[in-house]
Amino acid sequence: MPVVRHRSEMTTRHGAGWTETVCAGSAAFGAPVEMQGRLFTLAPAAAMPPVPIAAQEAMVYVAAGSGMARVGAERYPLERESMLWLSPATEIALTAGPDGLECMLAQSAGA
After folding, report:
1. What is the CATH number of the domain that holds 77?
2. 23-68 per-position pLDDT tens digit
3. What's the pTM?
4. Average pLDDT of the chain?
5. Would residue 1 count as lying in a domain?
6. Which of 77, 78, 93, 105 has the fewest other C-beta atoms within 10 Å?
């Protein structure tokens, strides 16, 4: 059965210049689900601490802005409507460009 969740129903945490919103996942739905989705919004030039990747494969889709992703020792440029496939990875660190960054991290729930 489809489920619609509104922004006011989603859990959000904040840091210095960044916001993480849990859009989908077991905690969000109160029952085991096979995927997790998180929305990250970063102010211009903001960086957030590394985010754990619990799945074998995950993807980051950039909805707006630009920035940089660091996965291990590698850096990947991000721009609006680009997608970064992570296979495998243990964490990702995001830094926004001069126009900020808004992206969705989607991954399967378990590794």
Report:
1. 2.60.120.10
2. 776 665 666 667 788 899 999 999 999 988 877 788 999 999 999 9
3. 0.80
4. 85
5. no
6. 77
| Cβ–Cβ < 8 Å for 79, 99 | no
Q: Would residue 53 count as lying in a domain?
A: yes
b vs e for 46-69, b when ≥16 Cβ sit within 10 Å of the residue's Cβ?
A: bbbeeeebebeebebebeebbbeb
Residue 88 has pLDDT above 80, yes or no: no
The pairing of beta strand 18-24 with beta strand 83-86:
unpaired
SS (H, E, C) 10-70: CEEEEECCEEEEEEECHHHHCCCCCEEEEEEEECCCCECCCEECCCCCEEEEEEEEEEEEE
Inter-residue contact 99 to 65 (CB < 8 Å): yes
Tally the domains of the chain.
1
Q: What residues contact residue 87 under an 8 Å CB cut-off, 6+ apart? A: 56, 57, 58
